[in-house]
Each structure stands twice: as C-alpha cells, then as structure tokens.
Amino acid sequence: MPRSLDIPQFVDAAASHPLPIRALNRLGRLVPGNRSLSAEGIWSAARKGPLADLEPTAEASEALEVLLDSLAANVRMNLVGRFSARDDTIRLARTHLRIHRALRETPGVDQVELPPAIFVVGWPRTGSTFLHQLLACDPASRTIPYWESFDPVPPDKGKPDRRIAKLEEMLGLLERIEPRYHAIHPMTAEATEECVALFMNEFRTLQFDFQYRVPEYARWLIGEDQGIAYDLYRRQLQLVHLHRPTGERQVLKDPTHLVHLETLVDRFPQARFVFTHRDPAFSISSICSLVSYTRALFTDEVDPRAIGTEIMSGYWPTALENARKVRAGLPEGHAVDVRHSDLSRDPVGTAEAIYAALGLSLSKEARVAMSQFADGQKIEQKARHVHALEGFGLARDGVRERFAGYCRDLDL
Given this model, what pLDDT does residue 21 score? Predict the structure, then answer.
C-alpha cells in the first residue's frame, strides 16, 4: 500500500486531483464564460484601493500582455485553474506596484551594497534545493526565505507584518488543491527558497512556462534582453537587504538562472557559482513529472508524452550546453561542480569541498548546523516520487546519448 503522499507516475491531469477538486472542475464545465484573462483587467483589479494612482512599469506591462496572450492561445483552464490563475496574477500585479513604489520612495535603496553572491545553478531536480538549504545553514549565508521574495515590501510603520501568515495561507490552499505537487517540491513560508518569485513580480520568468503551456511567451522571453529582468532582480535584492541586512554573502538559487547564465555572470561579475549535476535520464524524467503536475493545477488537458517532447526539444538541453561553455570561462576559484551522488552520500563533506574550491572558510558552527540539517533530512519520511521516461514518450538510452559528452565529463 503506497503512502498517502507518494507521487505516482503522471498519467492524467484530472486523476491527479483530490476528489473535491475533481468535482469542482466537473461542475465548472457547466459554467459559461471561460473568458481569457486580460492585462488591462488584471492591472485594473490590482490598482483598487490605496494603489489606485500607481502604474506598472512598461517592462512588466509588455511581459504580462505576452504571457496572457500565449495563455489564451494554448490553455483551456479548469474552474479551479481559472480562479487560481486570476487571483495569483492580480496578487503579482499588486506586489509589482508596491515594489516599484518602494523603490521610488525608499531613501538609499539604489546605494545598497549587496553581499558577495554564490549562485547554485543547474537543471531542476538535480539536488539544487537540498544543496541551497544546506548552504543556508551557515550563519554567514544571507538567503531569501520564501516570504521575503513573495512580498519584498514591509508594511507601513505601525502596521502588523502579515507576510508570513498570508503566504502560509496560500501554501495551505495549494496543498489542498494538489497535495502531490506540494510533495514534489515542499515549500514553507520561512524556509530558504528559490529567488524565482522576484522575477515573477516582474512577469519575466520561465516559471510561467512550468505553470502553463505558453510557448510564445517562452520564446519571447528568451529572445528579450535578459538584462532587463536581471537589473530589476538586483534592485529587489537591494530592497530586501536594506530592510534586513544580514550575512557575509548571499546564497541564491533559481533553476532558470541556467538559461540566462551569461547575463547573470555579467550582472554579478564577482559572484561564485556552484553547478549541480545528475544523471540526465533521471533529471529529464523528474522535470517532465514536475511540469505535468504543475500544469495540472490549472488545466485538465495535460499530455505527458507531449511534455516529454517539449522538454527534450526546448531550452533546457540548450541551456545546459551553453552553461558548460560559460563555466569553462569562469576564473579559477569562481566555480565548482557538484554531483548529486556525492551530495547524497556525504552532504557535509560536499559542502566542505565547495568551500575549499571557492576559497571560503567553513566554520565549526556552520559544519554542525549543516550536519544537523542533513541528519534531519534523512530521518524525515519523504514522499516517493515515481516517474519513468517511458511515460513521457522518452527512452533512457536516447536521453543518455543526447547528453553523452556531459555524462562522460561529469562521470554521471
């Protein structure tokens, strides 16, 4: 008998939902008016109340237009998906308006000097989340907890700070809608998390391509000047650091950094990089599963075999190949490679090797904290995530052959 949180091989979107959600979505088929979201409607809803006089940036306006046009052209959302997408997009629009008001009105924010950065970079499903959280155990590390990227703007003076509580409510709702998605990538409000939300606040991230099938948006974004998104990203990092200055160095992570690595290196020229690696046959299968379950939050029309083709012919393989070239050009002491097998076998030893390669000192306090975290992860009962390439129309030999040089170089 499988455990209740086990994630089976993805087969069908509707079947992945709990029974109450399935019932709601079936009811939704009887509800007329599956209207597409409009950028004008989203901004209008976001500007209600105290934000009435604010305007979005031109960059965010353009990005949201392209995103919603692509969404309308490709995705027929179910009832829960329609409500979720609308609420989430309005929330992001409100956050965007508040962020840019704060950037304009907060004295000194543009002069904030950020701590030196370490970026954990690699495909999704390569152990980067575990490694990011492991490195976050070092008291010298300045990471971004989810609540801080979810809403980088503190409340006005004298008002209670409900950012953590609001995010916990949202995550609780997400877990009820799709517990399997939550089990694949567990999230809590106060845990160290990817900085992807900072890009979502500007509507410029391939995270939206995880959530929805939006090929036109993905092509547009990749073809854009990535400096636009990364300059806005840096300014948000300055805002959060101004309000909570801590740590000797930033430790940041977002899988989509891999797609834009040249821009990341250009905007953070002194940064160090930790590249995570795993057998691509496993990673591709797990990415396909994650994309399938994520998109199933919003639509009942998810074809796993089509997703297999999409991933293998899309930007992830190209990003990996380009990243290997960029990595080869980084200065000595600015980059290190970490295999998932080594990280799993000896987490603290791997952290020690990372610090040594990057010219950093690992304190006794940090080593103890990392050891306790790693031991806790072993004790905690994990959901079993079942996925096989064949379910996505792919074959192990074909995937391994596609990345033969990579597998050979990293001994994967």
Answer: 82
Dist. CA 319–CA 314, nearest whole Å:
9
| Amino acid letter, 247 | G
Residue spans of the domains in the chain: they are 14-33+117-198+226-410
Which pLDDT belongs to residue 4?
Answer: 46
* C-alpha–C-alpha distance, residues 163 and 185, integer Å: 21
| 126: nearest Cα among 346, 340, 291, 288 | 340
CA distance 230 to 196: 11
Quick one: pLDDT band at residue 2, thresholds 50, 70, 90?
very low
pLDDT digits (tens, 9 = 90+) for 103-137: 999 999 999 999 999 999 999 999 999 999 999 99
Q: In the chain, helix, strand, coil percent, each to 5?
A: 60, 5, 35
Q: What DSSP line would sit under 97-116, residue for residue?
A: HHHHHHHHHSTTGGGPPPPP
Rounded to 5 degrees, what are φ and ψ at 339?
Answer: -90, 140
What is the rounded CA–CA span in Å between residue 339 and residue 330? Answer: 19
Angle at 62 between CA 77 and CA 240, to 5 degrees: 90
Bridge partners (DSSP) listed for residue 253: 120
Q: Is residue 287 within 8 Å of 391, Cβ to Cβ? A: no
CB 75 within 8 A of CB 213: yes
Can you name the residues that pair with 120 across neighbouring β-strands?
A: 253, 274
* Confidence band of 279 (pLDDT split at 50, 70, 90): very high
Q: Is the dihedral of CA 239, 206, 59, 48 positive or negative?
A: negative
Could you name the CATH architecture of 14-33+117-198+226-410? 3-Layer(aba) Sandwich (3.40)
